[in-house]
Amino acid sequence: MSDRFVEGAKDSRGTIERLLKGLPGIRGYVDKEMRRDADKRLRDLIARELEEQKQALFAVQQQMLRSGGLRFMATVDGAIQKLQILVDRVKTASYGYAGLFDTVNIQEEQLNALYRFDVALANRIGELENAVVQLGTAFDENNAVDAAIDRLTNLLIELNTLFGKRNDAIVNPDLLLDSTFVPEVPADLLDMDTESRDS
Question: What HEC string does the chain produce?
Fold first, then answer.
């Protein structure tokens, strides 16, 4: 395993922590006055992280092109396009909390479940960072490049699916009551801010 991959793996935890520190916390979902701003702030943070990974992937593609990896260009282009679609979806998603939830009786457990989608997406961005680093390492070492591209592409498909489910939940909040619909998130990544909820 190259030093570059090890450093990438260490950095990914920093990415997750950096992103989660910027999340609005549960108060941003419960307090009607803060809901729109919290949703926008969260999506801006996620979109910026995704843009960073798109630029990193583009740099790997350019490195491949300069080093004789022309045969990988089409599949890496496909991955870049999937990542761009996700960036665009996150940037242009409607404000899900203001307006819609004003007219729907949303329970606290539904708000908590929606928060889990946001944390899950933030958590998967760390995986995306690792996958991009792994692809660069695989190409540098001339080892399993096709497999690294496949892992990256599959991850991007999963991220787009996750964001799609989040959008479905905003349109139909009852989906959030189904525990099989809501993503599992490690407990240490959830800062449910119980003191804020109780106040």
Answer: CCHHHHHHHHHHHHHHHHHHHCCCCCHHHHCHHHHHHHHHHHHHHHHHHHHHHHHHHHHHHHHHHHCCCHHHHHHHHHHHHHHHHHHHHHHHCCCCCCCCCCCCCCCHHHHHHHHHHHHHHHHHHHHHHHHHHHHHHHHHCCCCHHHHHHHHHHHHHHHHHHHHHHHHHHHCHHHHHCCCCCCCCCHHHCCCCHHHHHC
Q: What global pTM score does this model have?
A: 0.76
Look at phi and psi of residue 184 and say left if phi exceeds 0, alpha if psi is from -120 to 50, else beta: beta
Query: Tens of pLDDT along 29-63?
Result: 555 556 566 667 777 888 899 999 999 999 999 99
Six-digit token string for 146: 């096709």
- pLDDT tier for residue 161 given thresholds of 50, 70 and 90: very high
d(CA 31, CA 128): 32
The pLDDT assigned to 55 comes to: 95
Averaged pLDDT, 135-150? 94
Query: Measured between alpha carbons, how far is residue 36 from residues 95, 140, 161, 187 in Å?
Result: 6, 44, 23, 26
Burial 159-181 (b: 16+ CB within 10 A, else e): beeebeebeebbeebebbeeeee
Angle (nearest 5°) at CA 125 between 5 and 2: 0
